[in-house]
Amino acid sequence: MKLGKLFSVSLEKPRLFNFKLTSTIYSFNWIYNGKNLYLILDYNPPTVAKVSEKDKELNATIYSLKNIITQSEAAEKIEKVLGFNEKIEEFYNKIKDDPLLKYVPIKLKGARLRSVDLWTGLVIAVCQQNASFKQGWRMLYNLYKKTGKVLQVEDHYVIALPRPKELVKLDARLLAECKLGYRSQTLIEAAKFFLENSLEEKLPRESPISAEKILREIKGVGQYSARLTLVLSMRYYELPPIDRWTARIAQEAYKLPSATVKTVERVLKEKWGRWAALGVFFLTVVLDAVPLSEALMRLKENDLKPSFSTEDLTPLNLWSKMT
DNA sequence: TGCCAGGCGGGGT
DNA sequence: ACCCCGCATGGC
After folding, report:
1. What is the Rg, in whole angstroms, of the alpha carbon atoms belonging to chain A?
2. What ranges do the domains of chain A cover?
3. Most buried in the list A4, A22, A109, A297, measured by CB within 10 Å?
4. Predicted confidence band at A22 (pLDDT cuts at 50, 70, 90)?
5. Is domain A4-85 annotated with CATH 3.40.50?
6. Angle, nearest 10°, between helix axes A244-254 and A261-272?
7. Within 7 Å: CB of A220 and strand B?
8. DSSP-assigned beta bridge partners for residue A150
9. Strand C: which residues 189-248 of A lie within 7 A (CB)?
């Protein structure tokens, strides 16, 4: 599906905004290619922003099937996705001496979380369940490649995940090829729930706590997945998604008596305040999302800087390495 | 080979 | 409230 060029807008970068880092973290190559960042602004009609950096500004060119979106709507969506209005100075102040995150304001200075739509956020979260970083991102990669819809923007091909309506109609064999195992049933349940409850329209109006409760009504979606979904899509940071990986690392770093979700949640909220979930997000980046045993060794050696040059797959090189 | 991983729900206490 | 187990799949 080839999209036509509509218009360009320029955006003034906020303070503490690093375009390259923000574009790089957890991107596939159809999202970021080292120069341009491709953001899906809408699915109906399919609309993509090609964003690049130019001095103090970002330049965005908008492509779509129809000429509906306005310049101010496009600019507003891009600024939301890139987290322009977040006061990360406040986050940096909280973590500048933190045993886990102290290098975030130095090595990842100006990196923001790129948000996605609610459904995409949930798909990402489900792929992370009970799997290594590598396996989780492989599953997501398969979903994009085998079931996604290709949107052509000039000579670049952006891939959109199937929407809930499309996912429920997918051939079961095709979904099986994505190697999600038992998680594929969760995705089907989730897609049905989204459709029945018009969730993409209704959930953004809920508080974080209530939104988490609603997402947990989906069979196969527990606290971790619900919260991760809300972090990635709504930028709700006060409820940290705590998995075994985060829990064990926090236990070691803060010398906690246990690594239960309850204990770790209390401490992370204490340490990182209303930025707790953003802290969890950046923890995975500074530790290159390495498996738990390796992460614990790195913590012991105080090796908490992300690697910018490694053969292994990391959140920072996914865009160039994952094929 | 045989574990076990950025979870989860169901069934036990 | 907890604790414990099985669950698809891939990686090592």
Report:
1. 19
2. 4-85, 86-113+236-304, 118-143+161-234
3. A22
4. very high
5. no
6. 60
7. yes
8. A159
9. none
